[in-house]
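notes to self, project folder thing:

trying the whole complex as one job this time. last attempt i did each chain seperately and stitching them together was a nightmare. two parts in total, labels are on each line so i dont mix them up again. if this works i'll redo the older ones the same way
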Amino acid sequence: MNQTTTPAIEVTGLSKAYGDKVVLDGIDLSIPRGTIFSLLGPNGAGKTTTVQILSTLIRADAGEARVAGHDVREAAQSVRAAIGVTGQFSAVDQLITGEENLALMADLHHLPRAEGRRLTAELLARFDLVEAARKPAATYSGGMRRRLDIAMTLIGSPRVIFLDEPTTGLDPRSRHAVWRIVRELVDGGVTVFLTTQYLEEADQLADRVAVLNGGRIVAEGTPDELKRLVPGGHVRLRFLDPAELDRAARVLDLGLRDEEALTLQVPGDGGVHTLRALLDVLDAHGVAVDSLTVHTPDLDDVFFAVTGRPEHEKVQSR
Amino acid sequence: MSSAVQPATPHLRDCLTMLRRNLLHARRYPSMTLQVALIPVFLLLLFVYVFGSALGAGIGQGGDRPAYLAYLVPGILLMTAGTGSVPTAVAVCTDMAEGIVARFRTMAISRASILVGHVVGSVLQTVVNLTLVTAVALAIGFRPDAGPVEWLAACGLLVLFVLALTWLSVALGLISRTPEGASNAPLPISFLLPFVSSTFVPVGSMPSWIRWFAEYQPFTTVIETVRGLLTGTPIGHNGWMAVAWSIAIAVLGLVWSLRLFDRDPR
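result (full assembly):
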């Protein structure tokens, strides 16, 4: 088996329904090793179901999925040996301490006692849990519990890690701590499959993003590729009276006029150089600009553009 | 690929790890387990000191309070076995709702070990409760005339029956959607069957339609066998029936539990 070319995760035509409700309607994915992949979507889009199927927790109705080279249906135990999962709802034992949780994982991975103790101590230090190590996990804050959760996932050195909404409900500080941890994971060569409803998170972390909506992948690509799917950035100039707007439009000879709002929307990436050039031209002609806003497209625009469409048509950008 | 993959069948080391986890839970949160041990102790004291004289006369053989105590203890031991099913079902139901069990399901461990840990942990706790109840009985004057062999046989049968009830309770915990439901589900085992049996009075004193049920139901056969072993009353057909019931319930509980657990989680 060629370790470098086999994708870490390969999915074709994955479908799942609960009764009449179709949760996944035939999704295809191919995720190279050593990358961060983000599945982005609103609540109920099917993100958690996808993670549950790929992590062998539930069975798909149709379609094929291979994780770390193994079929999730035929070779579930081999898949389990290669993965680590941090679920949406904290997967720690609340009744025992953080240290005991980590020791439990070490025992279940059949690590020698001394090795387990060493690893437990190392992870407690790395995830800033030394002080809380001897307290029951039920007393932990959301951020601490999530850190413990990820630390437990790392015992056993998984090659593919699933993080289902790892920062949902966390304060900004804890969110950044989790982001830092995720980036470190990939430096170590593992593949991360991350679900999130935060576009910023996907933008910050992911090498590739797929937008899941209504059980289908409606867009897929790198964050930059996805941003190109929506109209580009622009600078919005606001004026105090129609005469100034008129003059600006004549001087610049481009842009979209809004007579009501007294604004002129000029295409551009909003970079410092283009901005200075633009203002220089206006200055040279003595045009008085009241205010200016810069708008760069982000994944939010992509998200609303692709999830807003009535038919779930796939947009592939290459 | 060289990574060692664990089989799906029970693995001793995983079972021991899960047992340690369950004992840790029991040690940290002992209230419910202790509570269920207090119910049989309370009933023992109530029936011996409040009703003992009257019921002792009722069971015949020139019975008085000490005679009724000797009659009552085996049934109270079985009631201890029965009430032990409540914390088991609740613990299993609560545990299944926890994220940690979802994590276990995605790990290359023996799946059965998760249930085996619960079962062995619960059996050990019920054995502790049985010891406690026996100690109280001895303290208030229970004097069985059993020899070591009879004691051993009685203990063996009790443990086998507790094991059977525990596997059944695990299944009841798995089908219950809420911990409240799980605490009610074992009611037949924890309350109904121990009462409609020869625990408090001989089945011969019951009306015929209920006598037939009471005589052959699992609790009575085990009570009569333990009573015979400890106090020398006749055992008759109850001996083999007790063992047969225990094995049948254990197998039913085990197969049912494993099938329930192997379903996709809700």
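what i see at first glance: The radius of gyration of chain A is 24 Å.
need to look closer tmrw
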